[in-house]
Write a structure and sequence with these properties.
single chain; 123 residues; PH-domain like; eight-stranded mixed beta sheet; 1 helix; PHb; PHb_sf; Bacterial Pleckstrin homology domain-containing protein
Length: 123
């Protein structure tokens, strides 16, 4: 399981190509909303869940995938970017996992992601 308290793992920038790393895990009717990466690690928001990927080892051949369904979110908080501070944050509270925090730098579809989380968490 990924250590979500380690901030350096999840300082993320938008990277549409990163979704390819989790393509084999997607269900037939599951679509990618957006994807973000740091140096090797990343997160992909889909129509059904959030998939966090932690690449391990020197060669990067060992990978840890954490699948977090939207339906298990009990609360969340969004901090959007401002004029001078371009970073945004997403804190999610899962019923069985606890708090998960993602920090984004640069362009982020945080409002679209927030809307999608609400659609699933509030139904």
């Amino acid at each position: 399981m990924i250590d979500f308290d380690n901030k350096t793992v999840f300082k993320l920038k938008q990277n549409p190509d990163y979704a390819d790393k989790v393509a084999a895990l997607l269900l037939p009717n599951e679509q990618v909303i957006d994807s973000y990466s740091s140096l090797r690690d990343g997160v992909v928001f889909t129509s059904k869940r959030i998939i966090a990927l932690n690449v391990q080892g020197l060669t990067g051949s060992k990978k840890d995938f954490t699948s977090m369904p939207y339906k298990n979110i009990v609360a969340y908080s969004v901090e959007t970017s401002g004029t001078f501070d371009l970073d945004s944050e997403l804190e999610l509270y899962f019923s069985s996992l606890g708090k998960v925090r993602f920090e984004f730098s640069g362009k982020t579809a945080i409002v679209e992601i927030s809307r999608h989380i609400s659609q699933h968490a509030l139904n």
